[in-house]
Specification:
The chain is of the alpha/beta class and about 250 residues long. The chain has helices spanning about 5-15, 20-30, 35-55, 65-75, 95-110, 120-130, 170-180, 200-205; strands at about 85-90, 115-120, 140, 155-160, 180-195, 215-220, 225-230.
Amino acid sequence: MNAEPSAADDLAASKERSWREAAAIDAAFNAGALDQEGWHEAVRMLIEPAYLAADNPRAQSGHSGDPAHWERARRLLTQALPASGGDFLDVGCANGHLMETLTAWAAEDGIPIEPYGVDISNALAALARERCPQWASRIWHANAMGWQPPRTFAIVRTGLDYVPPQLRGAYVEHLLTQVVAPGGRLIIGVFNEERDQHLLEREVTMMGHRVGGRVTAQHRHPALLYKAFWLDLAAAPDVAPAPKTSC
């Protein structure tokens, strides 16, 4: 007979439905059974079939709720956007549903953003292009860990769930130096975390980064909150013209 799930299991499942499978992938990486490429491939194979088999745009983005729940869980990202808006890159864009809903929510709040996306799954990137043909040329297939984009972006949103924990520092540094434009913003979220804990934020500050701000929203599990925070890059320094010299 199967044992009843513990309170800890219930909390873990509320954070991430596939937490057991994800923990096994992390354990294999830690044991040396998977290298970095193998870790990403294992994670891709975990999420891609489920996303592609889903029958609604939210589930194709990994969300199990209805439209109201999707908005409650994701709309807080509009509060993390700079008021001036700008070009917005969604890392892990899946089927493009966050790109389209966040663009609409931001417009309602008077924040103009131009959405772009990148996904490690070629099949999901193709689905996003099919669903959002107006942005098809803005959606790339790549592993953001080492991706050299054709341009930089004023706003970049990412999660840290699908990055090996030991490589998160290198990943954040790569985004800040190669993907976010000078003066731009890196948003980390949305993620689920206990109300009274700030573990992910503390992890990022321990990398040497200063958190510029944070937002939260109510979660359906009473012990959790939806959270996001951001890092702001300094603007590029003005370079004075070289003094003219006479012959």
